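Reopening this one. Same input as before:
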Amino acid sequence: QPDCLEGLLGVCKNLCPCVMVVCEVEANTNATAFMDRFTEALFLYSSIFDCLEACMDGHNPNRMTMEGIYIWQGIQNIITTEGEERTTRHLKIDNWRAFFAKFGMA
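Same output, byte for byte:
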């Protein structure tokens, strides 16, 4: 939904929080150009796989579930879908700063 994030930030602002923490990966998988999105996804998921390799055995059932379901779905959504069908989107910190500033929260 196009305005979901705006609505959520509006609600958060109305709560008047003293501190708000956002955890986001440093990648822009929200690019409209396929090659830009593909390159960002490649670097992002390469680092995720590197982390998994360092922390879990390749035959670990939890790792296999993460790779086979969650990570695969994220990659597929970023690479193969367009418009509103694409639900996995990441933004870099500059985008978040501008977004929070728009709501007077930066």
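So the earlier flakiness isn't reproducible anymore. For the record, The CA atoms of residues 29 and 36 lie 8 Å apart.
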